[in-house]
Structure formats: structure tokens, C-alpha cells
Amino acid sequence: MRWEQSVKYASRSDIGFRRENNQDSLSVQICQDRGAFESHGHLFLVADGMGGHAVGELASKIAADTVPHTFYKSREQPVPAALKNALEVANRNIFERGSLNREFERMGTTCSALVLSPAGAVIAHVGDSRVYRVRGDRIDQLTFDHSLQWELLRQGRMRPDEIFLFEPRHVITRSLGPDQSVQVDVEGPYAVMPGDTYVLCSDGLTNHVKDDEIGTIAGELPPGEASRLLVNLANLRGGSDNVTVVIARVGDLPAGMHPVEIAPAAVATTPVDWRWLAAGWGAGIGFVLGISLILLQFAVQGVLVLGVALIGLVAFVLNWLRTPRAQAGGQSGEETILWRPYRTADARLTRKFLNQLAAIESEMQGTAVEEGWNVDWKLHETEFQEVKSALGSGVHQRAFRALARAIDLLMGGLQEQRRKAQHERRWGRVASSPSEPSTE
Question: DSSP 3-state assignment of 114?
């Protein structure tokens, strides 16, 4: 990526519909001068805290504060090493903070950080918060979920159709804070192309919105509108967790300037164990020797040699099957080698998705009228007519954008209605509770 390319970005964090506090944190650091960009680059981060009411919130905030501070201080290190070190320092800070107070013990947070720099797109990652890239009509997941399900898939111990039936969804296998040291995954550098859109998000989004939907929304809408629709959609589908989204879109290059070329990453492969390879060759030679002895009428010796060779061959095959392949399995879809996306999906706008959003908007509109939500109905009618006009003309992208704005207007009314209801419930309980015991 070059300094001359602008970056349009937006971020949004929401408590959701079922949580009492927001344990997510985020950070966006855009370089203000060429020197800072050339040495480090722009930084984007999402962290999802774990560990009780205030504990997870503290852990994610420490990560969101420590990682940018440490990263920009590391002026002598290459970007991948500096970013990895920043997450390791955040891990130590969270661990030490947890050690000072028994109530904060074992607190932790996920952390996914993306840097856009002359070195390309570099990611450092711990946990199950994700980083996606939308390029053209595809969305690629660039991070591996450190969860029980994904680890079992990577080890080949269960098939995707089995694992999502029998294994719990939210068991995290790696996070910042619970232990004094942590293994940080570093991905990239990946080449950055004009128009690339990056999405960082907590699992409050991915629990309710599918990859192809994320890709469509992030690819079709400006970052601000896209972040609002993603959060709105997650909430409308249950809002079971805090939802945090950061979207960054890379601008065009000036005329006559070419993208920075990034050397392709080497394919990650499993190291060869030469002892097992020699055992395999030995078993093959023994098999041939045993057959030869039998043909030469040395039956007893031939059978013994064949037996030993067969045992060796079986051991070799079993070891080969147990050895992890240089691949990473996602929740569904294709498996890909490590330097390629862990999952990929079609991000093109479909009539099916458009119809789903239209049905959501229609249902919300009916409820809003019935319950008297505070909505700017004049502006909503303008957007509604725009949807009808665009659909009549077959311009689905225009209809999609108007639908997103109409849903956002209705969502504002719904959120205000929820706040009023919560206020009434809270003060209703206070009013019904006697301030002093009765003397009668």
C-alpha cells in the first residue's frame, strides 16, 4: 500500500440486546504524516473481553490501549514482528493486572489487529474475533478462530457436519491475559489492492450474520452505512452478545502509480520426519524381499520378512494419517493452505438477500406504527419510495442502499423504545419498593 492511497473507515460498538455492559473495545490509528506511515502504517483493532461483568471490559480496554502504544514505539522492528510483540506486551499487562486482584484472576480478551502499510496488510491475532477482506465479489476470512471447534477441524479429529452438532460453539482455546505467555498468530503480509475493504469484528456479529452477508454489506455500502447495517442486523437477529465492527476501505492510486508488489508468502508445510520416511522405504523393500524369498521356495523366511514389512507399512500409514496437513479447516466451505484465506464466500448482492432485508424492513415498519415508535416518517417515506423506484428499474444496488437507510431509521426508533421500557421498568421497581419499613 502507498501513502497516497486514502483509507475510508468507520467503527461501531453496540451492547446488543441481551447484555448489561459492553465488554468489547476497538482502536483505529490513522497515520497523520508520511513518515509514520512509512515506518509503521495504519492500525485497526478489535478486542472482545471475557471474564465477568467488569473484568472482560477491563481486559479488552488494556489490549486496545497497549497494542497501538507498543506498536508505534517499536521503530526498529519490521511491521510483523512489531505487531506480534505489541500483542505479547498486552498479554503480559493483562496477566499482571489480573494477578493483583483475586476478582480479576484469569481475565482475558480476544484481539485481532490489522496494519495497512508499505509492507502490505499484516495481521496479528489471538482468539475468535475475525479479520475479513472483501475484494471484488469475494470475501476472505484471513484469521483462524482459536476455538475448540476450529482446532478439532484442523487436527482432522471430526468432520464439519459432526463438530457443529456435538461441540459447544464458544469455547476459546487461546486469548490474551489468562497466562503469562501466549502464542500470537501473524498473517501476511498480503498485497493491498485499490478498493480492498477490510472488516474486523467480534463474534457478536458472526454469531448472527453469515460471511456472504458481511461481504455484500461491506462491499456495497460506504463504511459508515455498512457498519450500522451489520450491527443492526446482528441485533435484529437476536443481539445475543456485544457487537463490534471496524471497516476500512483502501482508496484508488493516483494516475500512473502502481501498487506495491509483495513477495508471495511461502506455503506452510509440515516438516518431513526422515525417520518415518526411511521406515516407509524399508517396509517397501522388505515387502519385495519377502515375496522374492517365497518365490525362491524359502517360504518360512519369506513369511517372516513379509510380516515385519507389513507391520512397518501399517505404522508408516498410521503416522502419515495422524500428521496434520498444511491446511486449516473453517466452519464450512473449502479448506485452504495456510497462506491463503481460511474461508472464502461469494460477496455479490443477490435478490434473495435483498428480499430478506425487505421483509425485515416491512415487519419493523408495521411494529413501529403499531407501537408508536419515534421515527422520522417523512425521511423514511423518501427512502421507501427510493426502494420501490430502484426495484422497478432493476437497479438492485440502489434499492439495497435505500433499504439499509430505511432499516437504520426504524432501528433508531426501536432503540429509543427499548430505552424507555428499561427506564420505566427500573423506576417502576424503585417506586414499588418502600423506602422505610411500614409501622402498621
Answer: strand
- Residue 436 inside a domain? The answer is no
Q: Indicate if 144 and 232 belong to the same structural domain.
A: yes
Residue 262 lies in a domain: no
Q: What is the DSSP string of 150-180?
A: HHHHHTTSS-HHHHHHHS-S--BS--BSSSS
Task: Please tell me whether residues 245 and 296 are part of one structural domain.
Answer: no
Instruction: Say how many domains are in the chain.
Output: 3
Q: How far is residue 253's CA from residue 376's CA, in Å, rounded to a whole number?
A: 39
Inside any domain, residue 76:
yes
Name which of 233, 205, 210 is nearest 112 in CA terms: 205
- The residue type found at 98 is G
My answer on whether 136 and 101 are in the same domain is: yes
Q: Are residues 202 and 124 in the same domain?
A: yes
123 falls within a domain: yes
What count of residues does the chain have?
A: 440
Q: What is the C-alpha to C-alpha distance for residues 365 and 250, in angstroms, rounded to an integer?
A: 35
What letter represents residue 110's amino acid? T
Domain limits for position 302:
274-322
In order along its 440 residues, the chain shows pLDDT tens digits of: 899 999 999 999 999 998 989 999 999 999 999 999 999 999 999 999 987 667 899 999 999 999 999 999 987 899 999 999 999 999 999 999 998 888 888 899 999 999 999 999 999 999 999 999 999 999 999 999 998 877 877 776 666 556 555 556 678 899 999 999 999 999 999 999 999 999 999 999 999 999 999 999 999 999 999 999 999 999 999 999 999 999 999 999 888 777 776 655 443 444 445 555 566 667 677 767 777 777 777 777 777 777 777 777 666 656 554 444 433 333 333 333 345 688 899 999 999 999 999 999 999 999 999 999 999 999 999 999 999 999 999 999 999 999 999 999 999 999 999 888 887 777 765 555 555 444 44
